[in-house]
Amino acid sequence: MASPETVARLVVAGSVVENARGTLLAQGERPSRVALILSGTYVGTWTAPDGRIADGGIVQANLSEPGQFVGVTTLRGAPIISGIDAVTPVTMFTWLSDEFRAITESDLAVSLELLERLIYGIQLLNHLMQLRTFTTSASRLAGVLLDQEAVSFGEAPPITRGQLSALAGVTPQMVSRIIRKWEASAIVRRIGTSGLELLDRTALEAEAAPLADFPAPEPTSRPASAIPEP
User: What gap in Å lies between CA 32 and CA 140, rounded to an integer?
Assistant: First the structure.
């Protein structure tokens, strides 16, 4: 656990943002910030020099659970390498990266916490590369829908079709083809232009079954333990 002095300084230096929507951290923003996500779900975004935007992607292919620390790469002095957008309203604790590093660099507990999170990120990257190499588009899409059921189904689900395609590592056109096939098999039903209803959970679970051969790494066992919550 961080020392009482470190905790006190972090609480004073940090800012709480409640029920945030849209962009949480912008790619390349200055001054750089780090954030602890306290509640809500979010996804990474990448912006090309010509303005094209990609949601999700290989690094953040799974929506993150509350208690995750983002923007760690900015602690080296560089801007954040990807944007962070809210999928559902997010509450987070943020710090300027330079201030956070100055406060925590002599605290071993915080350093170990950040190291553990970076190791998990590397393990997750390896896992995602395995999925894209050895599993089918349909299996990955089914897995995303089941893992993120709360934000994937309904008349106007928070997660977009573009985000679904990026999270599953398939093209938007392939997502449409797979969903049409599942609709013909009465597994799902499309609602309007973006809604989706789950009709046959057993069949969708069967589609996702091959993913079980590639178990995901366990996230940090001490979520945010060294970093204070307000």
Answer: 33
